[in-house]
Design goal:
The chain is of the alpha+beta class. The protein is built from 6 helices and 6 strands; from the N terminus they run ααβαβαβαβαββ. The strands form 2 sheets. Strands 1, 4, 5 and 6 form a 4-stranded antiparallel β-sheet that branches.
């Protein structure tokens, strides 16, 4: 809103993609800005203008938490899981943690749109692993609930 008010005649187009792909099109001047949730990345010819640490958590509807006793990641591996696309950074980090424990996760739905994932979770469908900032307002209104698991499944990106 602030940007539009300040620059009402500038067209904004939002593209989603894997960090590496976005950096490549940024370097070729096809886009002007990349906002990514990833581990710290340094690219010589690019400048970092903003950086903030974000936490990624396991989340579901409160009804799912009340119906199941969820203490460990293995308690939800057979449940419906909705995740972002395979090479998204925070999903990749979750899969790395699971592989150390010789576990894998198989989502029933992969989608790049976090808003769609949140809507499905709010309707009681399954579990997901999302950045905390994307779901904070729904946690406050008790539409979603973060699941605390034994082990280290909260990622800092």
């Amino acid at each position: 809103m602030k940007y539009y008010k300040k620059y009402p005649f500038v067209q904004v187009i939002i593209k989603t993609g894997i960090t590496e792909e976005l950096f490549n099109i940024l370097k070729s001047n096809q886009i002007d800005l990349v906002y990514t949730l990833d581990n710290k990345i340094f690219v010589d010819e690019l400048s970092l203008k903003y950086e903030n640490e974000e936490t990624c958590v396991l989340v579901t509807s409160p009804a799912n938490v009340n119906q199941l006793e969820i203490k460990q990641i293995t308690d939800i591996l057979d449940a419906p899981i909705i995740l972002t696309e395979e090479k998204t950074t925070y999903r990749f980090e979750l899969e790395k943690i699971l592989s150390i424990e010789q576990l894998s996760i198989s989502p029933f739905l992969e989608i790049c749109n976090t808003g769609v994932i949140i809507d499905l979770l709010k309707k009681g469908l399954g579990f997901s692993f999302l950045p905390l900032y994307t779901i904070e307002e729904y946690i406050k209104t008790n539409e979603l609930k973060v699941i605390s698991l034994e082990g280290n499944y909260e990622l800092k990106m």
